[in-house]
Amino acid sequence: MDIRSTFAALGYAKTRPATAAIPQEAEQTGPNAFQKATESFAQTLTQGEEVAKAAMSGKADSQALVQALAQTELAIEAAVTVRDKVVEAYQEILRMPV
Hints:
This is Flagellar hook-basal body complex protein FliE. By secondary structure, the protein is mainly α. It has helices at 3-15, 30-56, 62-95.
């Protein structure tokens, strides 16, 4: 047997799980996916506010506050990026000739 074909077979075996079909319950498309994303965004902001309030009253440590602020910042940056892409797509549609 050729050594190169052995490496090719091993490489294929490693990538096979990555190309497997997505289970039905894990697949999210359309309005349901957008709704879940907005709920997750709102939940992240709420958790960040709760941790900030707890840190102000002395019930949470500074590490929890920093982690909550980082998660909130990441969520806001993701939302801004999505908004920018939607606006860019809308502007591109407006530039199309009729």
